[in-house]
Every structure is written in C-alpha cells, then in structure tokens.
Amino acid sequence: MTEVTSSSLNADPAELAKFSELAHRWWDTESEFRPLHQINPLRLAWIESLAPLAGKQVLDVGCGGGILADSMARRGAQVLGIDLAGKALRVAQLHALEAETPNIQYREVSVEALALEQPGHYDVVTCMEMLEHVPDPGSVVRACADLAKPGAHVFFSTIHRNAKAFVQAIVGAEYVLNLLPRGTHEYLKFIKPSELAAFCRPAGLDWVATRGLGYNPLLRRYRLDDDTSVNYLVATRKA
After folding, report:
1. Is 25 labeled as ligand-binding?
2. Is 62 annotated to bind ligand?
3. 43 assigned ligand-binding residue
4. 5 within domain boundaries
5. What is the tally of structural domains in the chain?
6. Based on C-alpha coordinates, what's the Rg of the chain?
C-alpha cells in the first residue's frame, strides 16, 4: 500500500504525519489512544441504538487504526475503513488479521474519491473525531452524504469551538490531565454545531439526534450526556 501525500487532497500533511508517527500504539489501551478505547463502547452503543449494524454495509471515514471499524464488524456489519494515514491503516490491517476480525477491509483513499467511486452504497457512514483535523470539513460532510443510501444514517463527532472547549479539550486534556499528546488539536479547527448543521443541510442530511461526551477526571470515566458544549456526537439521516 502506498502512502498518499498529494497536496490536492483534503488533508493536512502535518496531521497525517502526527498520527502515522503514533501508529504502532493504536491498539495499546494505555497509550495516547486510551481515550478512544474508553469512549468506543459508548459511541458504538449509541450508533447501534439508532442504526442496528448487523448485515449492513458500513463505512468508517478516518478510521485510523480501526478501533471503531473493528467493533462495528464484530457486531455483524460489512465494514470498510478508510484513511489517508498509511501507517495507521497497516496497523489496522494487521490487527484485523491477528484478531481474526470478520467482514472488514481497509483502504487508503480519500472520502471524496470514494464518493465518486461508490455513490449511494452504504447503509451507515461514520466519521468520528476527524472533521477537526482536515482543512475542509464541509467537503468531508458532502462526501459522506454522497456515499450514503437514501434513508441511511450518517454519524459525526467533533469538538465545539468556544472558551469552555478550549479549556477542557486543549488545556485540560493535553496539558493538565495528559489524556492526549500536546498539539493533538488546534482550537481554530473546532466546529460549532451550527456550522456542522450548515454543512449537513445542503448535503441532504437531516439532523436526527445529538449527544454530548463528558469526562469525569476523578473517576477517569467518559459518559454520554446532554451537554454538547465541548465534545459532541451527531446522528443525521440521508433524505
């Protein structure tokens, strides 16, 4: 598999390099990716509560090392995970082989390119913790919508842009609690729910539900709740 580095892609080379450098640690549950392992059961359960996965064609956009993609395949979905960080994808493929994960494939391809290749193909599309890492999140949203069948669910998660989010998601998570490596996020790339909604509407995605993702530093546990002021998840449906 050849790593894609074209400057024409909707990707930040520095972001790809950052996640590729950490690729070998994706499946270490005590590594920098511990938060993803901890929140995965929460987001998986929420996705399944709205869109049961068994027997469905599912696309995971920005899959990284495959934490969510792998768990969706184990729920009976036929899953394709895509990303532009080649090293992370190789880790995902190796894990799938070692863990004998059924019904899963990975490809190094942009979501925009795949949308031209497979329009209207998927029953469920997920794009989690990715939009705040790309130059043009609206392009990603449009491509996710194009890949979805009519009536399909499309899920996003990202981070609100406000003072509270800056304090909690950057200062707190990266510098105080050390939950994430410093420099993981850039505040100006955070996305307000109103901005995400503005991307969804012209793409033909109807807003279905929203949940907040909170963290208790004393218990070191995550939870889904109604507070969308920092981390939040959105479920949409293709018209």
Report:
1. no
2. yes
3. yes
4. no
5. 1
6. 16
